[in-house]
Design goal:
five-stranded mixed beta barrel; about 260 residues; mainly beta; OB fold (Dihydrolipoamide Acetyltransferase, E2P); 3 helices; about 10% helix; 12 strands
């Protein structure tokens, strides 16, 4: 049995101690976070371009053209054929040579009739209505350059008292062929304009009873109360239908 001398045993002990110290000096690895790392966000794929049409593929049809709508700014030009009036006798419109009906508020009628005459060429700026009628905002005589702009009546304008409304109306009869149908502000039919310029007014509810007559070319007849003057004839119908076949609209009115 070999016995190490004291010097050898001391050297061996120092070697073990040095190795142990070296191991203790090594850094302790840091624990990883307990929460897993989020995967990287996927990259969004670029949109694929649409496939090119085949050479012999038919072309798609063009989108339909939008026609005039109610309230769309519109300009028309034409020759004034005649003025039209309401049952109270106020000029509230004019018919152009191409049968365009231009309407304006009754309080402008006197000014329009004093500025423009039948046969004059006019430019009208306004708004297309559902029925094809033009609501005028400005009417200009192309020859004289004079124009009328739609403005509210002045506050001090004289108005007929409500108690006297209809006092000047007379009983009228009318018959003829429809040139065009007139409409209320919301677009409902409310009467007809005859070829001779006579205006027959109905309430929208009454007009709805005669859908077969509310169309151009129909032969109609009416009785009612209105006005006949140098500009034309207009009546609010109390009976409506065809010649020789009238329907009484209001049973409590005198005939």
């Amino acid at each position: 049995m070999n016995h190490l001398n004291p010097i050898a045993r001391a050297a061996a002990a120092l070697t073990v101690i040095a190795a142990t110290a070296a191991c203790a000096a090594q850094p302790v690895p840091r624990a990883l976070d307990s929460a897993p790392m989020a995967p990287p966000a996927p990259r969004s794929a670029a949109p694929m371009p649409p496939p090119a049409p085949a050479a012999d593929a038919p072309m798609p049809p063009p989108p339909p053209l939008a026609g005039p709508r109610d309230g769309v700014p519109t300009t028309v030009s034409g020759v004034v054929r005649r003025f039209v009036i309401n049952p109270e006798g106020d000029v509230d419109g004019m018919l152009l040579a191409d049968n365009t009906l231009v309407r304006f508020p009754p309080h402008l009628g006197t000014q329009v009739a004093a500025t423009i005459e039948p046969g004059a060429s006019v430019n009208v700026n306004g708004f297309a209505q559902a029925s094809g009628t033009l609501r005028a905002g400005q009417i200009a005589d192309t020859k004289s350059g004079r124009s009328i702009v739609d403005q509210p009546p002045p506050p001090d304008a004289q108005r007929l008292p409500k108690s006297l409304a209809g006092v000047g109306l007379v009983k009228l009869d009318a018959a003829g062929r429809v040139l065009r149908v007139t409409s209320a502000p919301r677009g409902e039919p409310d009467g007809v304009l005859l070829i001779d310029g006579t205006v027959i007014k109905l309430t929208p509810a009454a007009a709805a009873r005669f859908t077969n007559l509310m169309q151009p070319g129909a032969m109609v007849a009416a009785q009612g109360y209105g006005t006949r003057n140098r500009y034309g004839e207009s009546l609010q119908a109390t009976a409506f239908g065809t010649p020789g076949n009238l329907t009484v609209l209001y049973g409590d009115l005198p005939r």
